[in-house]
């Protein structure tokens, strides 16, 4: 659906990059478009822009809202409320 939305709206994907983005100086790196860097950011983006999924009755608003709530409660909150294995390594592995 996102691809069809891009085609219909003639979304410009930008020019291809033929450089290592990790080597770009900050003033050039800030112009490189980014995708969400976490599940939480991706869900916020979906929440802000989901009309393309509702076009043609593919998904209903209720389904999208339920999906967002489920992912936040069962995945984001579940991970956020627990120690990460790296924390155990850093602080408890003596």
UniProtKB/TrEMBL annotation:
Gene Ontology cellular-component terms listed: cytoplasm; membrane
Entry superkingdom: Bacteria
SUPFAM superfamilies, alphabetized: Glutamine synthetase/guanido kinase (SSF55931)
Residues in GS catalytic domain copies: 1-91
Top EC class for this record: ligase
Glycoprotein recorded as keyword: no
Ligase among keywords: yes
GO biological process, alphabetically ordered: glutamine biosynthetic process; nitrogen utilization
EC number: 6.3.1.2
InterPro entries cross-referenced by the UniProt entry: Gln_synth/guanido_kin_cat_dom, Gln_synth_cat_dom
GO molecular function: glutamine synthetase activity
Protein family (similarity comment): Belongs to the glutamine synthetase family.
Protein name (database record): Glutamine synthetase
Lineage: Bacteria, Pseudomonadati, Pseudomonadota, Betaproteobacteria, Burkholderiales
The encoding gene: glnA_1
